[in-house]
Amino acid sequence: MLFKYKAIDDKGVNKEGGIDAPNRDMAISGLQRRGLVVISIREESEKKSIFQFSFFEKVKMKDVVVLSRQISTLFEAQVSALKAFTMLAVNTENKLLGRKLTQIGDDLQAGVSISGALARHPDVFSDFYINMVKVGEETGKLNQTFLHLAEYLDRQYSLTSKTRNALIYPAFVVGTFFVVMTLMFTVVIPKLSAIILDSGQPPPIFTKIVIAVSNLFVHYGFFVLILLVFLGIFLWRFSSTEKGKIYLDKMKLSTPAIGNLYKKLYLSRITDNLNTMLSSGVPIVRAIDITAQVVGSLVYKNLLAEVADSVKSGLALSVAFEKHGEEIPGIMVQMVLVGEETGSLGAILKTLTEFYKREVDDAVDTLVGLIEPIMIVVLGLGVGILLVSVLMPIYNMAGSIS
Predict the structure, then answer these.
(1) CB contact set of 143 (below 8 Å; sequence gap of 6+)
(2) What is the largest CA-CA distance in the chain?
(3) Which of 5, 263, 279, 345 is found 20 to 30 A from 338 (Cα to Cα)?
(4) What is the C-alpha separation between 272 and 352, in angstroms, rounded?
(5) DSSP secondary structure string for all residues of 64-76
(6) Cα–Cα distance for residue pair 267/85, rounded to 1 Å
(7) Chain segment 294-332, per-residue pLDDT in tens
(8) Residue 207, Cβ neighbours under 10 Å: how many?
(9) Spatial separation of the C-alpha atoms in residues 259 and 175, rounded to whole Å
């Protein structure tokens, strides 16, 4: 937990800031080890106003990308770690990130390593990020490490955002269609159906179906809404369980078109993670374990856990991948095999990363190109059937009157 403190240093200068500690006593001990005389200290939550909504505060991946580039530049300029994090804490636009950087600076001043200080903020810095920094500390190449991290996160950010943005437009159109259809069934159709039924002519079967659906919305719409809410809550809770996550991941991977896109996205993450870590000197088993934690799919997480166990038992990475032919394509297995035989596994993984990134880009473009005409046809058919089912009886009624 975070404690806010006021203290005086050995020169009599007033100091204010925050310190992260398990409890109040340990926070005071940490401050005293820095040579500070504590005047007051309180848990940060005690000062929070009811108008503060920390739930909405979030550190985006883009913020971490910029931060990594800035740290790399400062380290390149021979700026100390403590001064670098202190400067960035003051100048960052993201208030939450600024507070976390202040805490990291306090931990560094107390003698904690950079990776150890970052590890106290897992909501911002992933296991992958922390282990990369740890390797940079061991090799003395922190500036290069943070530069590699920035480039890696930038690639992942652009890849993920492009995939997500490709699905926003279809979701918006489909959502708008359902809103319009709901208004049609609850406002327009009841008035027209009254005219059709009062005419005394037997309506066609599809008109009866439309009227029945309209009556369901009008008379039982509230119960349908409650049912949908309960269904949504059930699905949300089910998706938060490990069984539900695996089921949804398998469903995503087996869905035509979309499944192929997600598969290439996960393969791109796997090759990019492994390339970045192996190039930085992380042992291969540790690299696989970390990749499993950040791949973003329980299916591939479990797969990588099995691959790590196989590699621990002495199998080559290509052989371990070959056991999972459904999720790992043959071309990736063969490329990894070539990399192992030639001693250039890092270069091969980098080539695979670029390949799958292009594949994801092409899959997104293809998906967007297919979705638009399909949606136009499906929505057009839906509206056309609805109009014909209502207007045809009215047209017949007008013809019989004339």
Answers:
(1) 72, 73, 75, 76
(2) 103
(3) 263
(4) 8
(5) HHHHHHHHHHHHH
(6) 34
(7) 788 889 999 999 999 999 999 999 999 999 988 899 999
(8) 21
(9) 22
- Mean pLDDT per 10-residue interval, the chain, length 402 residues: 76 76 72 78 56 59 87 87 88 86 85 88 84 80 82 78 75 83 83 76 79 85 88 87 85 83 87 83 86 85 92 92 90 92 89 87 78 81 80 71 54
Which tokens in the block code for residue 18? 């925050």
Full-model pTM: 0.65
Alpha carbon separation from 125 to 118, 308, 342 (Å, rounded) = 7, 23, 34
Pairing of strands 37-43, 14-20: unpaired
Give the integer Cα–Cα distance in Å for 311 and 288. Answer: 9
Q: CA 230, 233, 239, 240 torsion: positive or negative?
A: negative
Residues, the chain, total? 402
Residues 67 and 122 in one domain: yes
* Domain identity same for 70 and 112: yes
| Domain interval for residue 28 | 2-54
Candidates 389, 43, 373; CA nearest to 184 is 389
Q: Is residue 221 part of a domain?
A: no
Q: Return the number of other C-beta atoms located less than 10 Å from residue 31's C-beta.
A: 23
pLDDT at 56: 54
**How much is the pLDDT for 20?**
67
How far apart are the C-alpha atoms of 318 and 329, rounded to whole Å? Answer: 11
Q: Which pair of tokens denotes residue 386?
A: 């609805």
Rounded (10°) CA dihedral 182, 184, 185, 187:
110
Domain count across the chain: 2
Tell me: do 92 and 25 sit in the same domain: no
